[in-house]
Structures are given as C-alpha cells and as structure tokens.
C-alpha cells in the first residue's frame, strides 16, 4: 500500500484539481465539462493549424505523480518572462497561434512546449509559471514552472537581452516553494510531495548562444570548448545535488539540442544548402557527453535518486535526418522570421510566419515547432520514436519508483 503521507498528497491534489491553480491561459481542463484536450499523434503530431481534439478523459485517469516542477530556459518557459523587463519575450502573435487557446502565452513556440505534453502523460494540468501565479498553496500543488528565456547555467548568460531568472535563482524559487509546502502542509507531507514529484531541467544552451559563441569576457581564450563544457557540467552536477538536498528524488535532465542546425547559425555561418555548422554541434555533443557521464556518477553517489538524461541532440538529429518519415518538409528554414533560412531576424509579427508550421522543424531562429516538441516529449516519456533517455525513459522511472513505494 502507499504511504500515508503520499495518500495525503494525492487527496489534497484531488481537492484542488478544479481550483484557481488551473485558471491560466495554459490551463488544460475545461472546467465546465471536465474535458481534457489531447492531440492524438498516433504516427506524428497533426497539423498545427488544427484545433486540439476534446476527449472525455485525460491521458491517465489519475495523476501518476503529485506534481511536475520545471527549471530551464526558453525551451520550457511558459510565461515567466512576460513579467520581466527583457527582449526575450513571446507574449505577442504569432507565438501561441496553434496553442490550445490560440493566444500567445509566453511560450517560444507556435503551440505547446515539451513539458505540456509530459504533463499530459503524467495526468497533470499544464504547469503554471512561477511569476504568473498568486503564491497560494493551491496554485502550486500540481507543480510550478520556474523557467526563464535567456537564462543559463552561468549567471550572466543572456543578460544583454535584459532581465531573466538564472539557474541559481530558479533553484532558490523552488526552495521557497518547498518551504511554503512545509509551512502549509507540514514537513512530512511536504517531503513526500517533493520526493514523489518530477523535476525537469532544460538549461545550458544560452551559455553557448549568449556567452561562449559571443566570446563574452574573452571566454574563448580562457577556456577551450572541452574545458568550458566540463565547467558547465560540473556546475550542473552541484546544482542537482543542491536540489537533492531539498528532497528532490526524481530528475529529468535534458541535454542540449543541435543549435548548429538552427536557422540563426545557418545564415550567420553562410550555410549553402542547410548543412549544419559542425563546429557548434561538436561542442554541444561534447557537453551532452560530459553531462551523461556526470549523471552516471550521481546515480552511484545518490542511490535513492532517480535521474535520467535525455539526449535532445540525438533525438533532434533523428528528426532532421529522417524528416520525411516524420512528415516534415523544411529542415532548415524557420517558419517565422526574415532573411536567409528566416534566421536573420527574430519572429516579430504574424506576417512573418508561414501558413502551416507543422511541416517545419524550426518555428523561429532557435526554437522548434509544436510538432517537434511532441515527438521529443514522446521520446522522453516512452522512447516512442527513438531511444534518447538513459538509463531509462520517464515512464519506466515513474512506474518503477511507484512500485518501490508499495509495501
């Protein structure tokens, strides 16, 4: 049977499942009919111009975990930067045009981001942004998204764009949330809630885009790529241990995507026929290698923790190389932007966007489309299209650790 504390968590979660925690632009449930919107992607995500299909029941009948907490950058920011003074914002059309509400929410995508799809798999509502909720307990019980566009592992990465919430500050915000749980629920229940939930980390790409590749503070003369990658991975290792000390026990750590294939770098490095910039991708692959090795070490050091590493580079390159099998026509051009590959200028108006984003891999200069996000999320959850998570996918981790809670 489940522990008493864990049962208490699910009871509290059920009581507030229709509370104002769901009253966000990114909400999942239709409160009047208890419907949940799920995109049926038996082979691949449907056209992003289509409306989501209402079904009478969620992907799972009850949540598999109490909550999903998210730390990261623009790949998973669902609106935190809407509240900051920054150029890194996605609160205007055409961002969000293919989202459930067909409105911009702060997601750097035409539709859903990966954690939206993972929330569906876990039986949870879409996770609200930390700066968009009221701070009341019921707003946070299903999880909180702390991610901030332009944020990096290094504190100052992305600072030229304005305000952002760095990795260190996001972890502090998570710690504040945990302390609020302790004060409101009691320490034992708070520990069980946090240790039974999933914490998703997707950060690091801005340390290349806005720091190393721009040679801020002459960093390229101080660090060869190998040393820089090792520095980032070791910093990430310490931050994961800090989160572990806050009773997190289930981690999903995302690797970095192939930004050498992103439209911005294709135009900047004058790619002739959409060939990826190998010198950039080589750095990304090396970082992913260091991070995976670091997680292997942590799994031995923290035996009661479940940590999985998902190689987004590997999953993304599978989509690029086999794009026709996935139904994509354009592998190099962004759906929205200006210039060669639509990579010279960021997406700023609906007139700059293509008609149908679902046949594009890239939505703007750096970010994939909703269709790609759905595929990558499926891989994180169940390795549906390709094996990119180690030592197991999220589904196996959730169910294996759930069995360990039975006595």
TrEMBL record:
One of its GO terms (biological process) is lipid catabolic process. GO terms for molecular function: hydrolase activity, acting on ester bonds. The keyword Signal applies. Keywords: Hydrolase, Lipid degradation, Lipid metabolism, Signal. It holds the Pfam family Lipase_GDSL. SUPFAM superfamilies: SGNH hydrolase. Residues 1-21 form the signal peptide. InterPro entries: GDSL (IPR001087), GDSL_Est/Lipase (IPR051058), SGNH_hydro_sf (IPR036514), SGNH_plant_lipase-like (IPR035669). Belongs to the 'GDSL' lipolytic enzyme family. This is SGNH hydrolase-type esterase domain-containing protein. It comes from Gossypium mustelinum.
């Amino acid at each position: 049977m489940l522990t008493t504390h864990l049962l208490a968590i699910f009871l509290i979660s059920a009581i507030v499942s229709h509370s104002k925690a769901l009253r966000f632009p990114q909400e999942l449930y239709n409160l009047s009919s208890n419907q949940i919107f799920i995109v049926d992607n038996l082979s691949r995500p449907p056209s992003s111009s289509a409306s989501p299909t209402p079904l009478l029941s969620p992907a799972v009948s009850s949540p598999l975990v109490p909550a999903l907490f998210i730390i990261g950058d623009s790949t998973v920011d669902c609106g935190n930067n809407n509240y900051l003074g920054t150029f890194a914002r996605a609160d205007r059309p055409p961002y969000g045009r293919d989202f459930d509400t067909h409105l911009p929410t702060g997601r750097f995508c035409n539709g859903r981001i990966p954690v939206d799809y993972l929330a569906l798999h876990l039986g949870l509502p879409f996770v609200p942004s930390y700066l968009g909720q009221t701070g009341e307990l019921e707003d946070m019980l299903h999880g909180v998204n702390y991610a901030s566009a332009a944020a990096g592992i290094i504190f100052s990465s992305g600072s030229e764009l304005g305000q952002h919430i760095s990795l260190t500050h996001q972890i502090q915000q998570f710690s504040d949330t945990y302390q609020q749980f302790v004060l409101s629920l009691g320490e034992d229940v708070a520990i069980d809630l946090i240790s039974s939930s999933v914490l998703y980390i997707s950060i690091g790409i801005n340390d290349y885009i806005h720091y190393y590749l721009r040679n801020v503070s002459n960093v390229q003369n101080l660090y060869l790529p190998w040393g820089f990658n090792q520095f980032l991975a070791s910093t990430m290792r310490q931050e994961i241990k800090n989160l572990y000390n806050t009773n997190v026990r289930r981690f999903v750590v995302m690797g970095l995507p192939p930004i050498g294939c992103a439209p911005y770098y294709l135009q900047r490095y004058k790619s002739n026929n959409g060939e990826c910039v190998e010198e950039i991708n080589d750095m990304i692959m090396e970082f992913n290698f260091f991070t995976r090795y670091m997680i292997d070490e942590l799994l031995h050091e923290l035996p009661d923790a479940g940590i999985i590493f998902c190689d987004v580079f590997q999953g993304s390159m599978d989509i690029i190389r086999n794009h026709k099998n996935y139904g994509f026509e354009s592998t190099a051009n962004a759906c929205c932007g200006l210039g060669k590959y639509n990579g010279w200028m960021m997406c700023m108006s609906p007139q700059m966007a293509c008609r149908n984003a679902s046949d594009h891999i890239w939505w703007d200069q750096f970010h994939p489309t909703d269709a790609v996000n759905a595929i990558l999320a499926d891989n994180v959850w169940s390795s549906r299209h390709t094996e990119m998570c180690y030592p197991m996918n999220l589904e196996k981790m959730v169910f294996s650790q759930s069995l360990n809670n039975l006595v």
